[in-house]
Design goal:
Elements lengths: L4 H14 L1 H13 L1 E4 H6 L3 H10 L10 E4 L3 H32 L5 E4 L8 E4 H19 L5 H4 L2
Antiparallel strand pairs: 1-2, 3-4
């Protein structure tokens, strides 16, 4: 199933609601575009058009070490989102698991207390529960996004 700009816009709108900082990073990356070398431009069929535009503007042609910035295709933008979500899920689990393993190894409490009890009621974080939630989230994200890029459209 081909991906279109409308699908990307819907996914980004949902990300802005749920994960605004991730949405901001992805939007910035998409605005900046992707870097392509002369060889990659030739492989993608962009080289001739770019060389023609440079010649019309009386600019020197692209050299072997030059790079160009190209906009992401719709499929590439969806892949950026998919990759970011998978990376985030993997990192969430790995960081919590590492902290839990460290606290167990050092025979420390696995519940962390935040705040000064004299000033406010403390907030607690149970590392075992958080690690399990992150493991489940990672599994869910993997299941939802592990197939082709069109799977992400179904997440909505």
């Amino acid at each position: 199933m081909p991906v279109d700009s409308e699908q990307f816009a819907r996914i980004m709108a949902q990300l802005r609601e749920e994960l605004p900082s991730l949405a901001d990073e992805l939007s910035q990356e998409v605005r900046q575009g992707r870097v392509a070398s002369e060889q990659r431009l030739k492989q993608e069929g962009e080289y001739e058009a770019r060389a023609s535009r440079l010649a019309e503007a009386e600019l020197p042609p692209l050299g072997k070490t030059d790079i160009a910035v190209l906009p992401y295709t719709d499929e590439e933008r969806i892949e950026l989102v998919r990759s970011a979500l998978l990376t985030m899920a993997e990192t969430m689990y790995a960081s919590r698991k590492a902290l839990l393993d460290l606290t167990v190894e050092r025979e420390m409490e696995t519940t962390i207390r935040f705040g000064d009890p004299e000033l406010e009621p403390p907030t607690y974080l149970d590392l075992k529960a958080e690690t399990e939630r992150a493991r489940i989230a990672r599994r869910t994200v993997r299941e939802l996004l592990s197939d082709e890029t069109d799977v992400i459209a179904e997440v909505q």
